[in-house]
Amino acid sequence: MLDCKATRAADVTHPCAHCAFYGGSVWQPVAGDALPVLTRGFSRKELEAGQVLFKQGEDNRGVFCVSSGLVALRSHHVDGASTLMRLAYPGEIIGYRSFLGKQPHQTEARALLPSRICTVTHRVAAGVVAQNAGAMERLAQRCIREIDRSHQRIISTATCSNKERLAELLRRLMVLHGRRNREMITMRLPLSRMDLADLIGVQPETMSRLIRRLEKDGVFGIAGRDVEMPLSALSA
């Protein structure tokens, strides 16, 4: 006769099972008796554009996964200014550094577009990670990936022109958020030119010149936040 506790665990569906990013999920290795625990600490939340997920300096409430949409991670400075550090795309997790470091968030997380966020509460995430080497390994891999991303950004700054890096960023945003219409793809840019300048690492006035140079090349058409480009340029 089957143990009732084991039966209940076997009957629980993994909360990430139907997600497009399940294969790479931090929580994918969780199974058995830990699965009902994970499920109880799991929730989904819809954020409107402009809504804050967590504030800089706020205590960590868990580990968050961007299921859809786009989230900006921004650092606020004592003089009132701020810097956009990076964008979190669908499939990425955020908040894990403050979770692992047992410290407040070092950045603010704000939705740039309507976004769906999956959350595992701090208490449940801590318990599951402590008991599941696979989940801990995947969290460590995300940390390494973050370090690699910073490394690649440094290399890109040294080896690629500012115009090339801006074009690559716009292409990536186009792939994720653009609308295809015959031979063109169009997009309403989800961030300001000042934010673009932060991501590229240039001054706002330099960004204006870079945009004019891209337009002169004939690949991008940019009017305010409206951007268009030929579909053929996505693979350029």
CATH H-level superfamily title of the largest domain: Jelly Rolls
CATH level 1 name of the largest domain: Mainly Beta
By DSSP, the count of extended strands is 12
Strand fraction band?
15-25%
Share in helix: 40-55%
Low-confidence stretches: 1-7
Throw out a few tags for this protein.
236 residues, Jelly Rolls, four-stranded antiparallel β-sheet, alpha+beta, disordered N terminus, Arc Repressor Mutant, subunit A
Please explain how this structure is put together:
The protein is α+β, with helices and mostly antiparallel strands and 236 residues long. It has 2 domains: 2-157, Sandwich (Jelly Rolls); 161-233, Arc Repressor Mutant, subunit A (Orthogonal Bundle). The chain is built from 8 helices and 12 strands. The chain has a 4-stranded antiparallel beta sheet. It has a 4-stranded antiparallel beta sheet with strand order 2-7-4-5. A 4-stranded antiparallel beta sheet has the order 9-10-12-11. Strand 4 (71-76) and strand 5 (82-88) form a beta hairpin. Helix 2 runs antiparallel to helix 4 (122-131), helix 6 (162-177) crosses helix 8 (204-217) and helix 7 (193-200) packs across helix 8 (204-217). The model is unreliable at 1-7 (pLDDT under 50).
Helix-strand blueprint:
Blueprint: H1 4-11, H2 34-40, E1 42-47, E2 52-54, E3 62-68, E4 71-76, E5 82-88, E6 93-94, H3 96-101, E7 108-111, E8 115-121, H4 122-131, H5 133-159, H6 162-177, E9 179-181, E10 184-188, H7 193-200, H8 204-217, E11 221-223, E12 226-230
Antiparallel strand pairs: 1-8, 2-7, 3-6, 3-8, 4-5, 4-7, 9-10, 10-12, 11-12
Helix pairs in contact: 2-4, 4-5, 6-8, 7-8
